[in-house]
Amino acid sequence: MWGAPDQQGHPTLTQIEDTGTPLAAVAPVRPDSPTFAELGARPETVAALAAAGITRSFAIQEYALPIALRGADLIGQAPTGTGKTLGFGVPLLDRVTAPAEGADGSPQALVVVPTRELGLQVARDIAAAGSTRGVRVLPVYGGVAYEPQVEALTRGVEIIVGTPGRLLDLARPAKGRKDPHLKLDRVHALVLDEADRMLDLGFLDDVEKILAMLPTERQTMLFSATMPDPIVTLARRFLRQPVTVHARHDLSMAPLTKQLVYRTHPLNKGEVVARILQAEGRGLTMIFTRTKRAADRAAEDLDFRGFAVAAVHGDLGQGARERALRAFRNGKIDVLVATDVAARGLDVSGVTHVINYDCPEDPDTYTHRIGRTGRAGATGVAVTFVDWEDMPRWRIIDKTLSLDMAEPPETYHTSPHLFSDLSISDSATSTLPTAGRTRAGLGAEVEEDLGGGRRKVRGSRPEPAPRAERPQRERRRRGDATASPEPVVAESTVVAASTEDSESRAPRTRRRRRVTGADTTEVDVPAVTGSGASGSGVSGSGASGSGVRGSGASGSGASGAGTSGSGVEARVAATVAGADDADSDGTTPARRRRRGGRGRRATSTTGEAVPTEATTPE
To answer: Is residue 605 within 8 Å of 543, Cβ to Cβ?
Structure first.
């Protein structure tokens, strides 16, 4: 999203106007409205606005500019589409110092917005209004890589427009750094835009943390469509004697937008929408849903019916959202399904139809939605679906806005008034004809890699490496002393080949001592690489030629050998009792003290019972 290089060769953020429609007059302007020059705006700002075709102020600007230019705190109640961006953007440009005027690159003004799309739109408008002075505006939001934003902060900016989460991330010292990337100690002007929506999204705590980082002496402006109690409390805490101004859409004075309300069944909404999208003269269409899941379902259904459609909601990554918006603005798709949160700041020209797939929650939401059409002198159509369970809510909206449509007609996809109200051909069906499928579709728009983490693609996990085949073990009986040594030798060779790294380690030497009434003899047996000792038996005597089971040596017993692993150390401690330790009959050995595991007894060549023990690796 970087623009052409500046005089120093660095990329700038001037290309942010590609993310939205160019700055233009989109709100109703009275012929007798005062000009920006008459309201006290800087001549450079007036010239930049005149280049965009804006000379006279809108309603919210007419009320807010004289107060904000004096440096007083301000509360503005205005919905989206009334021109409030310039209502606080022009005062911010008046207070900041441009690079050519001696700015040192520290942020001087901060605008906090609830969504990424709204942040991009606000940054674009302010940058266009301050283009003649070269004021640098940086949009800061999540879902993209940190590095481009950190580089822009290092080069220097005058105005920052950002979402609460990313602002907090940049305003806190990173790991291994003493100072944060974003320093807010020189900010002397703050704007909270769409404060009620930030409350709905749970950003109020983050906003209070950001306010605590700012200097006490500053100008604070708060704009919100509604003023719930938490927003009022926030204003009382952080604003000093604010002045409140009101500017609302007068729907009764907006004949350019045709408003229709139908009572429809949830299972029939898809069929009705398919007919509306085949109305004569339909251009770009926006469909609003209450939940993200409903947006996905509606988009999938319309795509199945042959329409070029895309969905935009909070669960999508920033790259996917910008891809859908670019395709919508460029005409590759003509239907955009969005939630109320994602729709904030979506100023797209050429929208002819707006469909409220779900009944709005309140009058302000209804105003926000239908304000996407009928802009800049163009005509538009707003269709609202109301379910039977939504009738109490709709009656409140109708009474508040004086729409005189408290009892909408029951409508299905075969109702004659649906075709006559929207100029739909009688031959329209539930799917778009093949001849009408002329849009390139969402697949024709390439998704940009904005950093911010790797995407998890289903099926992209590498296959695990195959396991090494284990040699087949040969079962032997515990007392079998006549087993053939050939399988043991072959098995030990395989195990030794798989554990070459363990052969270089010196074998451990553990001594166990068994005390009897006679002299004791210790026998140390070195480790045998590749031979297992689990459950192996040991036989032998203290005399020469004693056998060791499990060692795998030539001529010795091999019972229980063959477990996989590294070299195993097998040790035998054989204690031989003398003749003077036995009873007179020579058959009763002396009492022995045992420690550790119980070994097997074997018989020596003299017929004496000899206690033996085999140790297994730990």
So the answer is: yes
